[in-house]
Design goal:
The complex is a heterotrimer of chains A (476), B (324) and C (286). In chain A, helix 3 packs across helix 17 (379-387), helix 11 (207-220) runs parallel beside helix 13 (276-288) and helix 13 crosses helix 22 (458-475). In chain A, 46% of the residues lie in helices and 13% in strands. Chain A folds into two domains: 40-184 and 353-406, D-Maltodextrin-Binding Protein, domain 2; 186-350 and 431-474, Periplasmic binding protein-like II (D-Maltodextrin-Binding Protein, domain 2, 3-Layer(aba) Sandwich), CATH 3.40.190.10. Chain A has helices at 2-23, 47-60, 73-80, 82-89, 100-112, 128-133, 141-144, 151-155, 163-166, 193-198, 207-220, 243-250, 276-288, 299-307, 321-324, 366-376, 379-387, 395-399, 401-406, 409-425, 437-452, 458-475, and strands at 64-70, 92-98, 120-124, 179-192, 223-224, 227-228, 230-233, 311-317, 336-340, 352-359. Chain A has 476 residues and is an alpha/beta fold. The longest helix of chain A is centred in the N-terminal third of the chain and has 22 residues, at 2-23. Chain B is flat. Chain B is 72% helix and 1% strand. Chain C is mainly alpha-helical. Helices cover 76% and strands 1% of the residues of chain C. Chain C contains twelve helices and two strands. Chain C has helices spanning 2-44, 49-52, 66-73, 77-108, 114-123, 129-143, 149-174, 177-185, 190-219, 222-227, 250-270, 272-284, and strands at 243-244, 247-248. A two-stranded antiparallel sheet of chain C has the order 1-2. The longest helix of chain C is centred in the first third of the chain and has 43 residues, at 2-44. Chain C is flat and about 70 Å long. Classes of the chains: A alpha/beta (476), B mainly alpha (324), C mainly alpha (286). At the B-C interface, helix 1, helix 2, helix 4, helix 5 and helix 6 of B face helix 1, helix 4, helix 5, helix 6 and helix 7 of C.
């Protein structure tokens, strides 16, 4: 009898769960079939655009676009105005979202297994070369050059996008463009203005000074509200966007090199060039004066330590600055200064990195997909993306004094972009655009991480990087 | 193992013979012989039907030289090259990973077992306040999704995390993100999540031992330790064996927690086999090598299960001889 | 003499009381240590994003439902909740149904190769999931089951059916064979005897097995992640939404974690008798 009663309760609860779940709407949004009243958008968009949108609606209305993205402030901003887009054009957009590292695993598996689920895909600069070399992406040139499309130039305005970012998605092999950047970054030095003032420190101008500064701050043993403030925090996890990142930037100022860009198809590996060891040794050394555990930090771990007041400095991506200025995530909003990277023995260099949206070669709704890119990443929506925590990619937005006033990191970012341009003029390029770029990254990230964790020495790390990359290259 | 066919193969033959409306003797004989196998068909189709093809494919891939992302047509037969590379190359992390996997699995399970046994014994004392509540509450960690558990602990183990704070209060300052502490950190999470699994099953086992036997032993003057070791333990052994086997099967293949916590880092301090397979497949883009690693892991798992199954059957005999 | 015995008895009572108290205290301390991380998750999911990471932890900060609002409105977690429920429920029902004949066979017959076949059922599961993802995806595409509930259910079966066979076998052998035999003697067929006599007695066994399968299917990540995109994504895959590039969204992640684990915890607590029974069922009878 007792069994039976419990059994009834269990059954009932299970049925209840199923019924409750069944009541939830299956698909978040449905496109509206009724002709829409565009007047509500009249103040935001020009007549030209509204006419363009009506044309798109006639041509592609009713289609559904599947987009694979990774969790990113810009994606959130895009989602926020997707209802508007669906209103204007009658094209539904369904987002499939994961994180930056897994998005590529998922996309490549999706294509190679023949599923071809997506029309649009978000890509980081290190992932794109693999995609386009394998023929997964649709070249955008034909679309971008389409003179018949009136809205194109005024709306998307490729030339307004910063060349430091667009070059990440432009193939060095054939010059084709494969993705439109939605966010771009350089490496910046974040520092605690209050601590620097108190200890009478200046922003380090060279890497040696930076090491000294980190050591000095760390040795002070500053304790704020029960937490110890360490010298620095940065990323060093053996994963994509982890240990490889800082090394691939600072190897050039230290006089190192990664690949020889004279041969663009199978560039020779130059990782053993003098300077690479010094760069890794510097990272290992400064990590000793930083928050313990740098060798297992992802970008968000590293910046989180800084945001929560555990580090007085950080070398991180400029795109993380909006988070540092967000009081929901950070306790150092008013106490942060942004500076370009210091100079090394070989000069002052930086690298650019970008995230973009690309069309898949296998997508069935390319027209609609391109229209979406044009509209979403167009000039009018740039401010909106900025407001939602994205980082600017347009020169017009970055050079706007109002934006510079509002977002103090933009000035440092522009200096960083100059540093990057100087690096590119010397053919110092951190992201070889070869199909096997991620294999390289794996070798770098694991070995740099091992060096920071003091499993191996800097010399061994460089030796491993060179031999690992050579081995990969030999197989191609 | 395996019994010769025909020996007392179906119980209840007498009952069958009694029934009047039965098929002819020959057909009945045939049915009797094949019915046990026929009954297995749905289960075998459901498991082997879906798994056999991919498993065989995995085996086949381990002999190919094939880049992840390229079409199957580009794959080349490479013989044993992948295995050879894994066993001999300097860049191969196979032995390192194997060592870490065994360390990870061994330490976790031994700790879980010892802790689980200790807590089960404590719970089995004559009077414990709120025993049912405690037992029910212990279920919760085992119900949580591993991905969530990994993320949760990742935050708790930050220098500003909850765990670090409470440990700091008692004067222990550990940074779990360093190479020394990363492995203990993931083992700790495993222990947290799965010790309750042992507690619950061992407690139930202890309850099943009849009080009379223990009391009789107590009257005979056996000490508490002696009673536990010589009377309770033989009863618990089959439970320990089977529960450990289930855990070993899970933990050898486990990937989620280590992946979310450390992705094999810092350096290669937590690069267990599951992570190596992931790395070889997605980051080194080498399908063949990752498949070869998977085959090695599968073989290891098979071996361990086999040992446990032999062990389990032996304990069953022990069990049967121990109970009247 | 009597006085002395009384005193000794009293002392013993005291000692026993103290013993109980100390034992219970130790058990409860360990218990709370084990439960703390989950309780922390629940309590902290009701805090403002700014308070969540505060150091030292803010135990008494304002209560808010903001994180839940975000999880339900922006992330639309109820959609994933629904998918998870459908997939987990169907997997549970199908696995148990498919396992019954095999479990019956293992429990009631003795046949050649029995032990080896039982071993084979476990052995088939040894291949690591991540290595099987690609063949799985190819299979799913060929069958047209990519990104569908049915596809997920199909790929969950091979892991759960052998488990169900293993568990149900012991439950079936718990039911005395004589009951079935007498029914057969009364003119029932073997199937009829099983259906009318054994199945009603097996209900607790079905439940115990079902809960374990339900939990497993609800929590599974790797297959769910690669095999679904927009239509059939399940709850565990939503954790990724909070690993925003450059910031770890702890606040909504905590809320999502509670939403994802609370239903299953409540379900399991309701049927805890069976859950507790299940952890030993496989073992006690060998």
């Amino acid at each position: 009898m007792l069994y039976a009663r419990n059994w009834m309760i269990a059954c009932f609860s299970l049925v209840l769960v199923v019924v409750l779940a069944g009541c939830v709407p299956a698909v978040p949004s449905e496109p509206s079939e009724a002709p829409i009243d565009t007047s509500q958008y009249a103040d935001r968009y020009s007549d030209e655009l509204l006419t363009w949108a009506a044309g798109i609606r006639d041509a592609y209305g009713g289609t559904t676009l599947n987009m694979l993205g990774f969790a990113h402030p810009t994606l959130n901003a895009m989602k926020a105005i997707t209802a508007e887009w669906e209103d204007l054009t009658g094209i539904t957009v369904v987002y499939d979202e994961t994180d930056l590292a897994k998005v590529r695993d998922k996309f490549v598996l999706d294509i190679t297994s023949g599923a071809n689920s997506y029309d649009l895909v978000m890509t980081a600069e290190v992932q794109a070369p693999e995609y386009w070399n394998l023929g997964y992406l649709e070249p955008l040139d034909a679309w971008l050059n389409d003179e018949m499309d009136v809205a194109t130039e005024a709306w998307l305005d490729w030339d307004d996008l910063h060349p430091g970012y667009t070059m990440m998605f432009t193939s060095v092999q054939d010059g084709s463009r494969y993705a439109v950047p939605i966010s771009g970054e350089v490496a910046l030095l974040f520092y605690r203005t209050d601590i620097f003032d108190e200890l009478d420190l200046t922003v380090p101008a060279t890497y040696d000074e930076m090491l000294e500064t980190a050591k000095f701050i760390n040795d002070q043993g500053i304790v704020e509200d029960g937490r110890t403030v360490h010298g620095i925090s940065f990323r060093g996890r053996p994963a994509l966007g982890g240990g490889n990142w800082i090394w691939s930037i600072i190897v050039f100022p230290f006089g190192g090199q990664i690949v020889d860009l004279d041969d663009q198809v199978t560039p020779a590996v130059l990782a053993k060039k003098e300077g690479a060891v010094a760069a890794i040794a510097w990272e290992t050394e400064i990590a000793k004066h930083g928050v313990p555990g740098i060798a297992s930090f992802d970008p968000f771990d590293a910046i989180n330590q800084y945001k929560q007041g555990f580090a007085a400095m950080s070398i991180e991506a400029s795109v993380l600055s909006p988070g540092v200025l967000n009081p929901d995530e950070s306790i150092v909003t008013d106490l942060t200064g942004f500076a370009p990277l210091p100079a090394g023995p070989n000069g002052s260099f930086n690298q650019t990195f970008a995230h973009g949206v690309a069309m898949t070669a296998s997508g069935e709704n390319k027209g609609a997909a391109y229209a979406f890119i044009q509209w979403m990443l167009g000039r009018a929506n740039q401010d909106l993306l900025l407001e939602n925590g994205g980082a600017p990619v347009r020169r017009s937005a970055m050079e706007d004094p109002a934006n510079q006033e509002k977002w103090p990191y933009i000035e440092a970012t522009l200096l960083g972009l100059d540093q990057a341009a100087a690096a590119y003029a010397n053919r110092y390029f951190a992201t070889p655009q070869v199909e096997w770029v991620l294999e390289y990254l794996n070798v770098w990230s694991v070995n740099v991480s091992r060096a920071i964790a003091e499993e191996i020495s800097a010399e061994e790390a460089v030796e491993n990087i060179q031999s690992g990359m050579d081995e990969i290259l030999a197989q191609k | 193992m395996g019994n010769p066919p025909g020996v007392d193969d179906i119980r209840g033959t007498a009952a069958n013979a009694l029934a009047a409306t039965r098929p002819s003797a020959g057909r009945r004989q045939l049915l009797r012989l094949w019915l046990p196998y026929l009954c297995l068909v749905p289960a075998v189709i459901a498991s082997c039907g879906v798994l056999l093809y991919p498993t065989l494919r995995m085996f086949q891939y381990s002999f190919l030289n094939w880049s992840f992302g390229k079409s199957y047509e580009t794959a080349e037969w490479d013989g044993l090259a992948n295995y050879q590379w894994l066993l001999t190359s300097q860049s191969s992390t196979l032995f390192h990973s194997l060592r870490l996997t065994l360390l990870y699995a061994g330490t976790s399970i031994v700790c879980e077992l010892v802790l689980g046994l200790a807590i089960a014994v404590l719970l089995n004392r004559r009077h414990v306040f709120g025993r049912q509540v405690v037992l029910t509450g212990f279920m919760i960690p085992t119900l949580l999704m591993p991905v969530m558990v990994g993320m949760m602990w990742r935050m708790y183990m930050y220098p500003n995390g909850m765990l670090s704070y409470f440990l700091g209060l008692v004067g222990i300052n550990i940074n779990w993100y360093t190479a020394t502490w990363a492995m203990p950190a993931v083992i700790l999470i495993e222990i947290w999540q799965f010790t309750p699994f042992f507690i619950i099953s061992l407690f139930a086992g202890l309850r099943a031992i009849s009080a009379e036997i223990l009391e009789a032993a107590a009257i005979d003057g056996a000490s508490g330790w002696y009673r536990f070791w010589h009377i309770s333990m033989p009863y618990l052994r089959p439970i320990i064996v089977v529960t450990s086997m289930i855990r070993v099967l899970w933990i050898l293949k486990s990937f989620d927690i280590v992946y979310t916590m450390f992705t094999g880092g810092p350096g290669s301090a937590t690069e267990i086999l599951g992570i190596s397979i992931y790395r070889a497949l997605f980051l080194s883009r080498n399908i063949g090598r990752s498949a070869a690693l998977s085959v090695i892991l599968a073989a290891l798992t098979l071996l361990v299960t086999f040992v446990f199954v032999r062990f389990a059957y032996r304990s069953r005999e022990v069990m049967e001889s121990a109970t009247p | 003499m009597n006085e002395q015995r009384h005193q000794a008895g009293n002392r013993r009572k005291w000692r026993r009381g103290l013993d109980t108290l100390a034992g219970s205290l130790v058990v409860w301390i360990i218990f709370l240590l084990f439960l703390a991380p989950y309780l922390y998750l629940i309590v902290w999911s009701f805090k403002h994003p700014g308070d969540i990471q505060a150091y030292p932890p803010r135990f008494f900060s304002p209560f808010t439902l903001l994180n839940y609002k975000q999880v339900f409105e922006d992330v639309n977690i109820s959609f994933y909740l629904r998918n998870s429920t459908i997939v987990a429920t169907a997997t549970t029902l199908l696995s148990v149904l498919l396992a019954i004949p095999a479990a019956y066979s293992f429990a009631r017959f003795r046949f050649w190769g029995q032990d080896w076949l039982a071993y084979l059922l476990i052995a088939i599961m040894v291949a690591p999931l991540i290595a099987l993802v690609y063949p799985f995806l190819v299979m799913a595409n060929q069958l047209g089951l990519n990104d569908s509930h049915l596809g997920l259910i199909l790929f969950y079966l091979p892991w759960n059916v052998p488990f169900a066979v293993w568990m149900l076998r012991t439950f079936i052998s718990d039911v005395p064979q004589e009951l079935e035999e007498s029914a057969q003697a009364d003119g029932c067929t073997r199937l009829g005897a099983f259906g009318r006599i054994t199945v009603p007695l097996l209900l607790p066994g079905f439940f115990t097995t079902g809960i374990f399968i339900f939990i497993g299917a609800w929590n599974e990540f790797v297959i769910a992640f690669f095999l679904t995109s927009t239509k059939a994504r399940t709850l565990p895959t939503t954790i990724d939404f909070f690993l925003t590039y450059g910031s770890f969204q702890f606040a909504p992640m905590f809320a999502a974690g509670v939403v994802g684990t609370l239903p299953i915890a409540v379900c399991a607590l309701l049927v805890r008798r069976y859950y507790l029974a299940g952890t030993t069922a496989g073992a006690l009878k060998g």
